[in-house]
Amino acid sequence: MIYAQLRAFLAAARTGSFTEGARLLKITQPSISKQIRELEERCGEPLFDRAGRQVRLTPLGVQVMTSARRMMDAEVDALQLLSDVKALGSGHLRIAAVGPYHLVEILHEFHRRYPRVRVSVEFGHSQYVHDAVENFDADLGVLASQQPGNSLARFCYRQCPLMLAVPVGHALASRVSVALSELEGEPVIHREAGSSSRQIFEAACHAAGVQTGSVLEIGSREAIRIAIAKGMGIGYVSQDEVVPHDGIVVVPFAEPQGLMTNATLVWRKERGANTVIGAFLHTAQKR
């Protein structure tokens, strides 16, 4: 009984709503409300502050969430252990990644070593990847930066510079390299706010005192390539992610030190001993 109550509590805490928590668990809203009410009766105090359809953890609720997450950690690890048969003869690894470019080489080697382990990959921006690992929706994350975080361990296995992308015929297209200072006032097409490459580029511009004339924010690499090729602005891309395009010229930055992406694996610290996660980390470290 307590297990079901804690699962209901965690679902509501993660979604901020009893209704969304019930949808996550595939149960009815009255069922999740009943389980949480019974859990609160055990405590003698409310675990949520109710505000219409939204709920927010009380101070006691925050403490209970820490313990409940440890319980879920143990459950996930136990289930994974039960699914791992002789030398990873089976199992399932869930990966969230910012893109395929930093991941495919390791996936290829991992699949060669453990062909019967099922791997599923979901893509999104950096914050999505971080949250997916944090909330147990992914076993491993692949980021393009080394974001801080107390609950996540990390391993940087590759560094790659950002490159400037300009349309054919642009004044900078014929350059061997370009200094950031030369981008003053240039219309720049950005990725979405959660993108690591955007954060790295904007931080470097800020440090150099450069103000670009941002005109567009597009959450698609392909759409950005099309926009640059049509002359709507310039952009930036990790060297690993450069895709040849007849309408685009890619030029190195003259000062790449502050413009490096870091292909980084992240996982919850307490799950590093998990068999499948450990095997993937070992594969990455040997490359």
Global shape: globular
Radius of gyration: 23 Å
The CATH architecture of the largest domain would be 3-Layer(aba) Sandwich
- Determine and state the CATH class of the largest domain: Alpha Beta
Unreliable spans: none
Strand content range: 15-25%
Strand tally, please? 11
Q: Number of helical runs?
A: 9
State the order of secondary-structure elements, H for helix, E for strand: HHHEEHEHEHEEEHEHEEEH
Total separate domains: 3
Largest sheet: 7 strands, mixed
Helix content: 25-40%
Distance between the termini: 46 Å
Query: CATH topology of the largest domain, what is it called?
Result: D-Maltodextrin-Binding Protein, domain 2
Brief summary of the model shown:
Helices cover 40% and strands 22% of the residues.
Describe this entry's structure for a reader:
With 287 residues, this protein is of the alpha/beta class. The chain folds into three domains: 2-66, Arc Repressor Mutant, subunit A; 83-157 and 262-285, D-Maltodextrin-Binding Protein, domain 2 (3-Layer(aba) Sandwich); 161-259, D-Maltodextrin-Binding Protein, domain 2 (3-Layer(aba) Sandwich), CATH 3.40.190.10. Helices cover 40% and strands 22% of the residues. The chain contains nine helices and eleven strands. Strands 3, 4, 5, 6, 9, 10 and 11 form a seven-stranded mixed β-sheet that branches. It is globular.
Summarize the SSE layout with pairings:
Blueprint: H1 2-15, H2 18-25, H3 29-43, E1 48-51, E2 54-57, H4 59-83, E3 92-97, H5 104-113, E4 118-123, H6 126-134, E5 140-143, E6 152-167, E7 189-190, H7 196-208, E8 216-217, H8 221-229, E9 235-238, E10 248-252, E11 260-268, H9 275-285
Parallel strand pairs: 3-4, 3-5, 7-8
Antiparallel strand pairs: 1-2, 5-11, 6-9, 6-10, 6-11
Helix pairs in contact: 1-2, 1-3, 1-4, 2-3, 5-9
